[in-house]
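New to this. Please check this fold:
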Amino acid sequence: MFDSSGRKILLGVVTGTLLSVAITTALAANDRQTFHLLDSEGKPVMTQREGECVSTPNTPNDPTKMFKECGDIGDKDGDGVPDDEDLCPDNTPEEKAKGVYDNNQPPRSPNNKPTQRPCDKIGCPIDTDGDGVPDYGDDCPDTAAEYVVMPPACARNECVNERGCVADSDNDGIIDCKDACADTPPGAQVNEVGCTGEKPKCINEITLSSSTLFDFDKWVLKAAGKIALDQIIEQIRGQGDNFNTMSVIGHTDPVGSDKYNLGLSKKRAKAVADYLMANGIPGNKLMQEGKGESELLPREPGESTSNWHSRCRRVVVTYTLHKNAEGEVCTNQ
């Protein structure tokens, strides 16, 4: 049987053992550090009150742990930002690989950085150039300041593709979102909308980039798309009775199901055809069709997937004439 001095020694040993395994948790409300007291099985020591754990100011062991039963705030995606602050609490390893926004000083993970712009969100992947495409998926991380996303929408600019680049697929000096003729031959002189202005032929095929006409995955014409179509309408008006027929064919990239892409291409072809007819193109001379992903463009050697997909997303407008610019009767149309 222990005497009173023995009981004091035993109590001191037990208390010392518990304190030696105390660990930390951040109290997000005021960023103070307290430490949970653990028992010999590594479980938190509870007080008599429900949901409350014994805390101690002593130095914790490493690594630290948090416990739901103690009311701790977790960090389920492990990006260093507590869940109660994290506006993107489900980041994947890829999404957090280049850091997230974290206004704590110092940041709670080595790659984290403070917010810089109005659209930066705590706990969300860093977007250094602010173009709406986070660094982990941005092939062009130094996009010009004119394309920085702004509130309230904080949406990616229509000229920036899904890989963070402002593309010029045909390298004519006119970026795709402003290019009414996205397949200009190499070296051709073009006007402000990316077209050559060459004399009409018997068959005139004009490829319009979908990024010029529509927002991503949409089929409502944008202002830039209407401007591009207005160029075609002016060409046809200049032909008068020499205008013969027109076709509008919609195409998509291979991302998504065949059924969905076919439907999207049909809606886009209809949107273009409706605009043309509303602006004077006779409906009985116009044919529209959607081909989905059935006629993908050939991929160029070394071409990135994003650029290839961008070229595949297109609407091809073809119009025919009765006579060419030299007055010769057109045949085999």
Q: What stands out?
A: The first helix runs from residue 4 to 20. The helical segments are 4-20, 210-213, 223-237, 258-278, 305-312. The chain has three domains: 4-70, 75-166, 176-321.
